[in-house]
Design the sequence.
């Protein structure tokens, strides 16, 4: 099963450090393979959503649009939850 | 329980700065101890202070030790040799860049991963490009 979504990152620090760590921690709960790319920077390079260093290397700043793609048994749920995390401004944690 | 980290730097201020960075990412989920500077406060490393850091975060799931420059390895090895056998087996020196390795390893440890997996993530930090987003 495959699923994907596109979402704009509104967090003031983009997908850096703490928000990126929250993103990676959530992604790691899923069995599916999950990839992220930064559409605002061209979207050519895909990072594993489960690697902090890969995610932070995408250079996602506030206002950037990212694409989240998942493949596997829980792909749909992964995409929904990751999208929700980004939209929520990465909660309080 | 989770794997703990010890970061060894020649500079106390570098260690403190890295502590701040790592804490920002793991928000208390992982125990991280820092050993920075020589015993007289100058630049350097100290086996005794590394031992203090190891004691601070020791736990059954193990401790991963990162070092900033090659000469910190010697002090860390001395500290490791002086540990009781049981603790030595669950304490691992890892060959990794200290900033990227500490941050990536801390996140991996916060997932509840085992020592081998946390060490692997730290090692992989060496080949992870930063540019090209």
Sequence:
């Amino acid at each position: 099963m495959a699923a994907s979504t596109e979402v704009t990152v509104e967090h003031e620090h983009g997908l850096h450090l703490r928000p990126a760590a929250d993103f990676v921690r959530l992604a790691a709960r899923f069995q599916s393979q999950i990839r992220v790319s930064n559409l605002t920077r061209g979207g050519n390079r895909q990072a594993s959503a489960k690697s902090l260093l890969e995610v932070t290397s995408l250079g996602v700043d506030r206002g950037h649009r990212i694409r989240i793609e998942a493949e596997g048994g829980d792909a749909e749920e992964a995409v929904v939850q990751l999208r929700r995390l980004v939209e929520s401004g990465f909660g309080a944690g | 329980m989770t794997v703990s980290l010890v970061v060894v730097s020649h500079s106390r201020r570098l260690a403190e700065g890295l502590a701040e960075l790592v804490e920002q990412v793991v928000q208390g989920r992982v125990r991280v101890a820092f050993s920075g500077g020589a015993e007289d406060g100058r630049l350097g490393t100290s086996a005794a202070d590394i031992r203090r850091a190891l004691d601070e975060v020791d736990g059954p799931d193990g401790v991963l030790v990162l070092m900033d420059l090659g000469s910190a390895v010697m002090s860390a090895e001395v500290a490791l040799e002086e540990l009781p056998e049981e603790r030595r087996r669950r304490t691992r020196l890892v060959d990794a860049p200290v900033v990227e390795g500490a941050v990536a390893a801390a996140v991996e440890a916060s997932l509840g991963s085992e020592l081998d997996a946390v060490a692997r993530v730290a090692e992989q930090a060496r080949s992870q490009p930063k540019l090209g987003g």
Remarks:
- Chain A touches chain B at residues 17-18, 21, 24-25, 28, 38, 41, 45, 51-54, 57-60, 93 (CB under 8 Å).
